[in-house]
């Protein structure tokens, strides 16, 4: 009953998130050097990025574990953590101090992956329950 498309998407999303984290961190450093980045806003933007990275590890682990063991609880917890990651991603997309076109592109792709992954998780949970 475990979902192969979900497993593949979790794997691809894990690899993409490493790229996303490094690219976003590099852009924040770039923006802090090139633009007049207020010191009061640099720390929250970095904190959101690192909090998102901290959430990503258990989110992916629980997703892998829940799908492979066909357990609803870990998959549901992963789905809940996905909601938190989406909120943080929307912050980086809309409300960080400076938003470049590369930020929009990276965050739009990540949000699309989160949406597709969430749909597959809901379908997998439904298959496990029935």
Describe the structure.
By secondary structure, this protein is mainly α. The protein has one domain (4-129). Helix content is 88%, strand content 0%. The protein has four helices and no strands. It has helices spanning 4-34, 39-68, 72-95, 101-129. Helix 1 (4-34) runs antiparallel to helix 2. It is elongated. This is TMM80 protein. The chain crosses the membrane at residues 6-30, 42-61, 73-94, 106-129.
Series of H and E elements = HHHH
Instruction: Find the count of extended strands (DSSP E, 2+ residues).
Output: 0
Proportion of helical residues: over 70%
Which segments are poorly predicted (pLDDT under 50) over 5 or more consecutive residues?
A: none
Beta content comes to: under 5%
Shape: elongated
State the helix count.
4
Please report the distance between the alpha carbons of the first and last residues.
Answer: 10 Å
Sheet/helix structural class = mainly alpha
Number of domains: 1
Summed over residues and divided by their number, the pLDDT gives a mean of: 96
* Radius of gyration, taken over Cα atoms and rounded to an integer in Å: 16 Å
Largest sheet: none
Organism: Irena cyanogastra (Philippine fairy-bluebird)
Protein name: TMM80 protein
InterPro entries: Uncharacterised_TM-17
Membrane topology: Multi-pass membrane protein
